[in-house]
User: Fold this.
Amino acid sequence: MFDNSLAQQYRLEEAARQPPIRFTFFWPAVDRWEGRDFDQRGGHRMTGRNLDLDAALARQLRADSIRCSTAAGSGHPTSSLSAADLLAVLLAGHLRYDWAKPKDLANDHLIFSKGHASPLNYALFRAAGAITDDELMTFRKLGSRLEGHPTPVLPWIDVATGSLGQGLPIAVGVALAGKRVLAAPYHVWTLTGDSELAEGSIWEGLDHAGHERLSNFTAIFDVNRLGQRGPTELEWDLDAYAARVKAFGCDPIVIDGHDLAAIDEAFARARNGERPTVIVAKTVKGRGVSFLEDEEGWHGKALDGQQAKQALAELGEVPSRTFQTLKPDPWQAPKRPVPRKPEWKTYSEPLATRKAYGEALAALGAARSDVVVLDAEVSNSTHAEDFKQTAADRFFEMYIAEQQMVAAAVGMQVVGLVPFASTFAAFMTRAFDFVRMAAISRASIRLCGSHAGVSIGEDGPSQMALEDLAMMRAVHGSTVLYPCDANQTARLVGLMVEREGISYLRTTREKTPILYTDRLDEFRVGGSRIVRGGQLGDAVAVITAGITVHEAIKAVDQLKATIKVRVIDAYSVKPIDAVALVEAVRATGGRLCVVEDHWAEGGLGDAVLAALAETGVAGEIVGFRHLAVRAMPGSGKPAELLEAAGISAKHIADAVKELAGCGRRR
Amino acid sequence: MFDNSLAQQYRLEEAARQPPIRFTFFWPAVDRWEGRDFDQRGGHRMTGRNLDLDAALARQLRADSIRCSTAAGSGHPTSSLSAADLLAVLLAGHLRYDWAKPKDLANDHLIFSKGHASPLNYALFRAAGAITDDELMTFRKLGSRLEGHPTPVLPWIDVATGSLGQGLPIAVGVALAGKRVLAAPYHVWTLTGDSELAEGSIWEGLDHAGHERLSNFTAIFDVNRLGQRGPTELEWDLDAYAARVKAFGCDPIVIDGHDLAAIDEAFARARNGERPTVIVAKTVKGRGVSFLEDEEGWHGKALDGQQAKQALAELGEVPSRTFQTLKPDPWQAPKRPVPRKPEWKTYSEPLATRKAYGEALAALGAARSDVVVLDAEVSNSTHAEDFKQTAADRFFEMYIAEQQMVAAAVGMQVVGLVPFASTFAAFMTRAFDFVRMAAISRASIRLCGSHAGVSIGEDGPSQMALEDLAMMRAVHGSTVLYPCDANQTARLVGLMVEREGISYLRTTREKTPILYTDRLDEFRVGGSRIVRGGQLGDAVAVITAGITVHEAIKAVDQLKATIKVRVIDAYSVKPIDAVALVEAVRATGGRLCVVEDHWAEGGLGDAVLAALAETGVAGEIVGFRHLAVRAMPGSGKPAELLEAAGISAKHIADAVKELAGCGRRR
Assistant:
């Protein structure tokens, strides 16, 4: 099976005799051994476990992976078979998990980064007694908890996977929380396919695991050589994988992934390591079934009935039973201080909402011990760094790795923490796939994107978020908030703490005047505020949020009461305050102007129209102007760029004048 | 300056005497030397160049970086100073570039992946004589071509940078095109900051450079130790960087980035290497100005007038002149065959639009030699693999690295190729930041996302794109197309070839019936087709695209002419056919039903409402129903999931009945 082990062994022995030759790469730091060789060299196995049970379990996992996918008529049996031995040994001898208490903080975590190996994941749950064989056979059917790829509708699944390259970085987050916040005894295991090792996010994850020396983290690389459409880039070049792992600060352990003793040793060693470990396992796709082994063309294909019968016959005697799992050692999570009501600052002088965000985090840090803050190396710009003033030990520097930042936030909320993660709103786009998946994970995370819109000024379009509202609105169940002053920002951060799902706060680079000094409790998710006008006789309603609220107010001032204008601060972009919008339509006779520092597509303008259409009052619109960014901006002063984009006070005043003159068409 | 070189030297010498110690990592494969040491050891320098000019140029680059940022009052002088020596030697002795002919295919390419070092980039253009000193001093001002971060409004800039971690992967694309398609003589140089090395996309890029053995590619790591808010993760651990580079298949060359001779040697060696090279340069942020050198707190800050004066005084005698650049050797691009009209297949039997996409690519491959196709390891699902039948040498397997895929496409269009890049539409979200930046790069790339919506069936929500229309609509200048049959797909692919900017095609997993057999030339960007009804007496208009067009037709059939329905195939989601929408409103008295296999936010529904509002006819809407996906889907059969999501024929028929009963409200 392991055809390059001898050559490698030779190289290591040679290396021991010779001075190192420059320009030739060999990697003495990589600890390579297989259980059998180890025994032959007179070593002793660390665990001393009898592995007959593991072998039986592996046969059951294989059989069940085939059975459930054949019953479904689709799925990934061959990707399951390659990892069956690895997972059998993990379940039988190493995973510490109380299946009756999936929320027990002492439990190990097992995340299938290769989510398509869901047949194996579910077969494992069945072997653990968590689900019945009957339920196993509902795989991929409408209404089943056993979806094509794992999701947390099953209580033993931490997070949804299936977008490759995400499970490992999320597992890093779970390990980070266990080590740095909870001091919990759990170990985090993640099973990773070799195809997904081409994703940069994997290396962001290992980089962080190494940097943080996460000894409670183990990734298992299931190197079965075959991707969806053919060989992987590195095929069975285990040396290359090991060198990468090592270079990224983790300890590679290279094994034959079908040698139960080697697997057993590797897991024992991984659990007791002082650094994060990666088990680089050479495996065979379809292992155990002659006509599937290392064959192309079988990815993501279920066997038909006849093929399944033949495969099961080849597997020999297959048990159909529950296997014992080690329970975690009894552990009591240290008592946390009772959360206090955060002492929000109140502001009277102009302040950037990004700064207010930082100060709100600081207030939260003092009040609650479950809040954690992550930032992608721009915490002095997003002002997330202020959190360090009250809770430095719960601040996580994620460096410039936005995908890993969001993944870590998702991982941390798995174990009950309340994460806030921030970067420039423009760079939040880097993590869109992770945010999308976080929604499928039913995760509760709070994101903050700073430096929104053209109003950032000189830095130019690469730093301007002009699509973040569209992106975040299109996340299932999301909450999208966009404050215009510092007091409001603090209050919205307070609402985000309690909010389930994905919530997003959009902040501004520039200082903005203080609008709200009265009753700060008047903000709510789904709310809005009327900041000018508000009478039935208003001629036009300007609906806006964030920086352009102040432009709208300036426009009203410029108009000098020649036209009565209602200015609505729609700080809750999603859910939007449909009632206030309907009232605005009714009050103004249907004359609306939406203003936003965002592309015209997918942002506040679309949200307003959708709400009016949904509530059945779109037909009452008589005049509609949408001021948004429509041409590619360049550099300039903030005011110049607001002007150039057509979203400044002057443009708003012009639009209002035009709207006020609109007659009813019919 | 280079305080660990002795220790390193010692380690290498030690290593040469000792047998390798297992478990300790040293990297004899990394070729480390500095020019001076090299000379002392009796070696000869490869280039024999006198470096006095380079030193003078470096001083000018430093002075100009300071001058222009001080004049602007913002910018990144210290990040420019760390790389000034590297870029001076590159410009004076290695870059082959005809500044008068920036489109010359023989020119080298220089991409500042650390786009914030734009002062250095522009100072270099000034030194090359491409821009005047007067223009240099317009840096960051409104209307200037010299934006805060580089964009291709300057003809010598290939692509916009400023979102870190993107320039390098794009440079890989330029190199790939040069080596594998054009056989061009150019070398691609990219300057990378050390902070951005935390981005996974960097490692996707180096992985591909290594895998493709891009000997025409050189990355320069400007390791100045300091990021925006403090030390980088690895600071000056050059060994760690070199090990990573090596492990990812590129050749590291470790140097002191302020030793001109070492730099000169390294560039000569990089150009003549047989593999991609990475120059790992130890540098000092703010180098050359005593009060800036290796100091925190100076990132992204311009010097004030007084500070600038002091800094310039420290730099000593600074030239203010144009420096000669090597021109590329005369080279004639091989003549390409004249493009032919592609022979699109025509279809009469049901076929998935994704399959039609693949076959359209195959037709393009035969007809045009400038079309290239990239796919992220799912080409047997997206059917991009069909392109190999006619142009295998222009198919690029990017493995599961969507960011690198889009980056490579952007790089390839820099040198005139016409790239199509595909993956599952859900995974296109992985590359959103790259697509966003591609728009700022004024790039013309064509993306195809397959497996859109719940209609994919059993694989579950992780594989279902339900936000891709929102994402792609919110890209500046984008074109968003969503065909419903195979003939239409072929025609839209044909339109994409000619289309500037970012265009996106959304395809479907399932086979769909053929609707269009008549005049295939009737499709256009910004168009739509009426597939049922079309008379003035239509009671209701159903506006839809893609898979749900067929559901709408089934709904019409179910209604058995009890209600006259107009079904509009809005295959051009952006730009949308506003004229057809207005006609539909007028014809039906304002009764509209929009149906889409997408979340309710940001997709076709929002696009329709925005167009109606923009054209001033929103007020004529009497009834509006928006059937879209609103609850998290699970697994199931495609038809079951369309039904469960409320977007099936039955739901459409119900909505039509309800709408037909709507009276005018006013």
Observations:
- Residues 1-44 of chain B have pLDDT under 50 and may be disordered.
- Chain B touches chain A through 133 residues (CB under 8 Å).
- The longest strand of chain B covers residues 591-599.
- Chain B is about 40% helix and 15% strand.
